[in-house]
Amino acid sequence: MLEKDTKLAGLYKRTGRTGTTWVVKARQKGIDRVVTITLGRADVLTPAQARSAAKQQLAALSAGQNPNETRKRKAEAQQQLKITLGEALDEYLQLRQLRPSTLKSYRQVIQRAFADWLDKPLNVITRRDVLSRYQLIQKRITKTSKWSKQANPKGLAEAQKAMRYLSAVMNSYVGDRYMGEPLLPEGNPVLVLKEKRARATLKPRDRFLGDEERQNLFGFLSEVHHPEYSGPVKTAQADFVLLLLVTGLRINEARTLRWEDVGEETFTVRETKNKTDHTLPITRLVRLVFDNNANESEFVFPGRGGTKAASMDGVVDLVASQSGLEFTAHDLRRTAATVAAEHGFNHDQIAKLLNHAKGSVTDRYIQRTATALLPIMQAIEDDIVRPWDASPIHSTHDADTDATNVVSFPVAEKA
C-alpha cells in the first residue's frame, strides 16, 4: 500500500509484509517509465530526513540518471576494489606466459611469506604492513636457517624475493580504476622499501665447492651406491646431484630430462631458462647416471607413479646435510664453471656450457655443438674423479644392442 507524502510530490510511504519504508516514485527524464527508489525504513528515517533524501533522488531522475543503476554500479565497483591478494596473484599469473618453474616459485614464495594476506584486499595492504612483513620474513629465516656460510645476512634474499613478487602483482593493479576510484589509492605499497632505503643491496653469491669439497662430495655420492649404505639418500638422488655437478645444469633442467632426448653420444635439455634447447655430450659419468636410472617412464628422474618428473624438492639440501657439506644447486653450477676456468677454458666457452643467453647478433649465428663442449665436460669430470681410482666406476650400456644392465657404482677408492 502506498501513502503520498503531504509535503513532497513523488515521496511515498510503502507498507508491506516486512514493514513500512520510504520510497520515491517518479519518471526518469528521457525514459517513459516510472522508477521506484527505496530510501529506507520509516521507523528509522524521520519525514524530514526522507524528504531531504528524496529531493536528491528526484533531482537525479530529472537529470536523466537512475539512482538504482548508479547504486548498483557503485556496489559492483566496491566489490572489484576488494580483490584479494590471492585473486590478484591468480589473475597476474594467468595473464603472463611464465615457465612452470617460475609459476611454481611465485606461488610457493607468496604462500610462505604472505599466507595470512591471501584473503586480504589489495587496497588494505599498507606501507606499514609491508615494512613490518619485510622484517618479519628475515627474522623467521634467521631462526630456522642452519646455514653458516652465506654471502648475505640470513633471510635477506628470501625477504627481497618475496617483496619483488608482491611488488610485481601490485604493479599490475596500480592503474586500475572502478567508477573513477583507484584500486590502489596510494599506489604500490612495496615502494616504501625503496623510499625508506630499507632494502639492502644483495652481495652476489660466489660460493662453489673447492678441490677437497668436490672430492668429498663425489666420495659420498659413490658411497650411496654401496650395498651396505643405509642412509636416507637414495641412489637416484645421488645420481641427480652428480649430474648437476658434472654438467652445470640448473636443477629444473636436470629434473625434467626425458628419455626421448637422450641419445648415444648426446642428450638435449628442452626446458631451459632462456627457452633454447641445450645439447650436451654424454661423458662416462653422465652415461653411468643414465644407465643407473633406466626406467619405463618418459622421464629420467620420474616422480611417484612415473607420469611426471620428480620434484626434487629438498634433494640437494638432503645430500648436503648427509655429506657434511654446505652447498645449493646453484653452487654446483658455479662449481662446474669454476673448474672449467681453472682448466683454462675461457668465458665464452663456459657460457656455452652453462647455456647463458647469447648477448649479441653475432653470438646468435654461432652454433653451440656438443662436440665443442666435450673437452670442457671431460675436464670437469676428470677433475672430480682425479684423486680416486675410477676403474670400478663404469657403465654396462651396450651401444650395439641398446641393452643396459644397471650397475650401481661402488664406493670410490683412493688411488
Describe the protein.
By secondary structure, the protein is of the alpha+beta class. The chain folds into 3 domains: 2-65, Double Stranded RNA Binding Domain, CATH 3.30.160; 85-195, no CATH class; 211-414, Intergrase catalytic core (hpI Integrase, Chain A, Orthogonal Bundle). It is built from 16 helices and 10 strands. The strands form 4 sheets. A 4-stranded antiparallel beta sheet has the order 1-2-3-4, with helices on one face. The chain has a two-stranded antiparallel ribbon with strand order 5-6. Strands 7-8 form a two-stranded antiparallel ribbon. A hairpin with a 6-residue loop joins β3 and β4 (34-41). Residues 361-366 and 389-415 have low confidence and may be disordered.
Based on the model shown, name its key terms.
alpha+beta, 4-stranded antiparallel beta sheet, hpI Integrase, Chain A, 16 helices, Double Stranded RNA Binding Domain, two-stranded antiparallel ribbon, 415 residues, elongated, 3 domains
- Got a strand count? 10
Radius of gyration: 33 Å
- The CATH superfamily of the largest domain is known as Intergrase catalytic core
Based on the coordinates given, report the CATH architecture of the largest domain: Orthogonal Bundle
* Order of strands, widest sheet: 1-2-3-4
**CATH fold field value of the largest domain:** hpI Integrase, Chain A
Query: In DSSP terms, counting alpha (H) and pi (I) runs of 4 or more, how many helices?
Result: 16
Quick structural gist:
The chain is built from 16 helices and ten strands. The chain is of the alpha+beta class. It has a four-stranded antiparallel beta sheet, covered by helices on one side. Strands 5-6 form a two-stranded antiparallel ribbon.
